[in-house]
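Backbone shape codes:
===
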Amino acid sequence: MKKLLLENELSSNEYPGRGIVVGRTLDGTHAVIAYFIMGRSENSRNRVFIEDGEGIRTQAYDPSKLSDPSLIIYAPVRVLKNNTIVTNGDQTDTIYKLMNSGSTFEQALCTREFEPDAPNYTPRISAVLNIQNGIFRYTMSILKSNNGNPNACNRYTFDYENPVNGEGHFIHTYMHDGNPLPSFTGEPKLVAIENDMDKFGDIIWNSLNSDNKVSLFVRYINIADGTYSSKIYNKNL
């Protein structure tokens, strides 16, 4: 699989929707997470990311304009012991709850399916990073309708053991803009990962469509000791 540049993938796609990037820095010292959201409607664009404990949550920028919170207000990132969970919906809480009670990431997601937002049936994309005793691995998932058929849910899981330095994987909800929006297809894309968090965050933020981008979260986790640094970008702040 050819390694791609995120700036090219993002700048050439007006509407990838919501996206997750997970990988390892070129120097091998840090695990990397990036999660962004975009919006076409006023309701979707009326959001910001805010810190919430060790994770983040979405919040209405202008509460008076919030028309439907059901699919846009959630916690995208939560931390459970040695696991960092990142998703594009309230399945974050499902994964957190079931993993905390002994289930696996995959078992937790078997209780969920794509979003009920006909005719798009937006995929639920998720990832979990595990860092323990200096060892890092991650798993990504997508739950999607069967070619727009709401009666069938297809579940795909991709597991990455001992991630290679300077490499990561990028999965997003939509292939491109459209009506209805076409779901992401194929494996997560292999992408290059930067050593510097600010540089990496700026690359993503500046490459997203200026009209549709809403928020971006980036976190770099030290694989040796689990400490981390994070950065939030909000168009509305």
